[in-house]
Design goal:
Blueprint: H1 6-11, H2 13-28, E1 31-34, E2 37-40, H3 42-45, H4 48-81
Helix pairs in contact: 2-4
C-alpha cells in the first residue's frame, strides 16, 4: 500500500487535516521572534492545557471544514448545471 495513494488520502482526509492543523498551530505557538533572535517556549508548549487548546483549535477547524465543504461542493454543482 502506498502511503500517499489516492484511496488512502480520501479515506483518511479528516484525520490528516486534523493532524496537520494541530502541528501547524503547535509550531506557530512554539516560538516568537525578537530583535535578539527567536525565543523558544518549550516549557509552555509542552503543558497539557496548551496541547489541549491546540487540539481543540484543530478539532474546531476540521469540524468547520467538514460542515462547509459539502455546502461548497453542492453550490458549485448547482452553478455548473445552470
Amino acid at each position: 500500500m502506498h502511503l500517499l495513494s489516492t484511496t488512502f488520502l480520501a479515506r483518511h482526509q479528516s484525520t490528516l487535516l486534523l493532524v496537520i492543523i494541530w502541528l501547524h498551530v503547535s509550531v506557530l505557538d512554539l516560538f516568537y521572534i525578537t530583535y535578539s533572535g527567536p525565543v523558544f517556549l518549550w516549557q509552555d508548549n509542552t503543558k497539557l492545557l496548551t496541547l489541549a487548546v491546540h487540539f481543540s483549535i484543530a478539532l474546531a477547524t476540521t469540524g468547520l471544514y467538514k460542515v462547509i465543504s459539502p455546502a461548497r461542493v453542492n453550490k458549485s454543482q448547482k452553478l455548473g448545471e445552470q
